Amino acid sequence: EIILDPSIRDWVVLPMVIIFGCSAMVRHYVTLLLKSEKMASIEQLQPMNTVKRAQITRINSKFITPNAFAMRKHYFTASQKKDGMKGALREKVKSEAMNQMMNPNSMLEMMKGNMTFMVSNFVMMGLMSYFFGGFVLAKVPFSLTQKFKMMLQRGIELNTLDVSYVSSVSWYFLVSFGMRGFLSLILGEKSASDDAKAMQMQMGMGAGPNMAFDAPKVYKQERVSLRLHNHDWALEFAEKKLLGEPI
């Protein structure tokens, strides 16, 4: 049993929480200063709007006549129309993922965000290790298995130390994840989630890949959905239903 000095709480635990909160706010505003305003181009918006129009047509098809739906379906899916043009969902478009890879401005924005997080995190880790390295800061009020030892006692190589004690380095990571809710109230939910994803990637937890709009794939899916859609005109007997007459 190790008795923890109350001074550790006052001069190590609480200062680490305050320092991390301040660094997160500084990183947030530095990112905003480095971030340039993005303007979506027509080439990016047009495929999205085309898919949205096709989806609205398919979902609300019951409110138009079968002939009107057939004309709209032909407009989107026709392999070749009378004027020689193809359907709107058969036009050749580039995937947004490829556009981002070929766009140097997009790569520069990603580099700015990654560098801001990495530099601030390296500085914070260096300061924490220099000033608070080797400290046992807290004790978990319940027993844990040996599998939690690597997570709670980073930087302290003592096999005889009980698993419930928390080292300074582990406390830093616990605070970084535990303060996400608090930071979301101050900085906004988007900023907190971005920091959390970056931290997960650095620790090897690997957040999911950023799903870009794949226009060719979405076009094909929507063409199939329109071809297989069974049109049912809901207003065919609207007058009789309104008057209560038998259909």
From TrEMBL:
Keyword Membrane listed: yes
Keyword Ligase: no
UniProt cross-references to InterPro entries, sorted A to Z: EMC3 (IPR008568), EMC3/TMCO1 (IPR002809)
Membrane topology: Multi-pass membrane protein
Species of the source: Phytophthora ramorum (Sudden oak death agent)
The protein's name: ER membrane protein complex subunit 3
One GO term describing the cellular component: EMC complex
Location relative to the cell: Membrane
Keywords tagged on the record: Membrane, Transmembrane, Transmembrane helix
Coiled coil region boundaries: none
